[in-house]
Amino acid sequence: MRLALDPARVAAEVAEFSGRMAMAAQQLATMDVRAEGCSARTEAFRIDRTVLWHYAPVGPPAGLAPLVICYALVNRPYMMDLQPDRSLIRGLLAHGLDVYLVDWGYPERADRGLTLDDYVNRYLGACMDHVRDAHAIPAVNLLGVCQGGTMSVCHAALFPERVRNLVTMVTPVDFHSDDNLLAKWARRLDVDALVDALGNVPGELLNAAFIALMPLRLTARKYAGLADIAHDRAALENFLRMERWIHDSPDQAGEAFRQFIRGFFQDNRLMRGTLEIGGRRVDPRRIACAVLNIYASQDHLVPPSASRPLAGLVASRDYTPFEFQGGHIGIYVSRSAQELLPRTIAQWLASR
Amino acid sequence: MADGPGIPFFMTAWLQGQQAFAQFAGSGFAPQSLGAGTERFFADQYRQLFAMPGLQMAAPPDAAPGPSLLRYQQAAERFGRLLNEAALDAARRLGAALADDAPGSAPVTSLRQLHELWIDCGEAAWSAVAHREEFAAAQAELFAALVILRATVPAP
Fold first, then answer.
1. What domains can you pick out in chain A, each with its CATH number?
2. pLDDT tens digit string along A32-44?
3. Contacts of B7 in chain A (CB under 8 A)
4. What span, in angstroms and rounded, lies between the C-alpha atoms of A124 and B154?
5. What is the pLDDT at residue B2?
6. CA B130, CA A183: separation in Å to the nearest integer?
7. Which of A70, A146, A154, A289 is catalytic?
8. Total domain count for chain B?
């Protein structure tokens, strides 16, 4: 692969690239992109900072039990509904599903003592109870995303009677698989020093760690791509909306963070069957409902090796793995995901 | 995070990287020119990983008590050695790729192609180092030392 650069051509390339980047930067500087979700919704319920959103239907109802989406504590849940043509929620609504979304909000200093018991049992439990009561049904469908999927598995194990069907998306359950770089790093983390000193863990610190997983691809390559879309205002708006989401990282409630790092990343207690939340043992073998486990083949944050072992953890005889060809972000916003994932989830739920 | 117009703050790091790349690209474009400059260029990129937002200190770290400052300096030196190792490896990979005259290998005819190759080599070298237990330990120690240093720095 020898270098065959022609100085005149390089000079022209540099000039064109610089011009495009200047144009992109100029447009980005004047764009006012809001990133908070795009579909109509109402606040159905609130407990402390946690809000349960209920989405307005957009198509004829499918007649299925409502679906509660439990997002991660890391990053904001509007990724599920980023913009009209990139919205898992909109796709689910189009298939007639009745969709709720758990939004944990932004923890503040006073929330440093919140624990996994608060999030998994009290807040998620209250949201599940609200939907069950509102629809007068004993169990609802639960879709957990990323860390929210791990929390959903725990909730389903602790309260199996509340969960009709469980869907997990890019959800880690085995935190000690060899190719899980984030877990390798977290295993060594002195989480006590971090939480004791800081209280809540800054979201921007976590974000820096996520970018460090692929530091050149997630900065140099991505931003060089701006030159390719400098003339496309809509593409620039998409880019900016996405960047805002990536960098919109809530601080993490200190105690919950400590428990999550220690219990999952360091001790792998869910896999080992030794996890306790709120003084109760979390036994995934109590999960007997149908399970759809969706993971992404190129996921650098939650590699398939971290998600697939769910099959061996649950007691369900109705377990469906689904491998999406893409990465951790593409599974939410790629063009292929927009049609494929809502249809897969809706059809899977409809057949149960 | 506040919404609103303005140059995105996250582009700063990228612009710094582009300056480094421009310096590299302006160094003659010949494989034989790949040397200390290229290593420094990769090292500058990796060194941004020293920046740990959210852990800024209220005063210069020199104001910290000796033991916590010494621990931080040792941790930073250990972590820096690994970053330099990755930078050396990245430069070696880039040099090897550009020296590959195998029949059928397409020549690099544009800066953009060179940029892509640079990223691939940089990521491969990074991944090789970052997956080592030694790296995880050094990174964790740097975190801990920085947190303790921050806690012991007196407010201005």
1. 41-350 (3.40.50.1820)
2. 887 778 999 999 9
3. 25, 28-29
4. 41
5. 40
6. 12
7. A146
8. 1
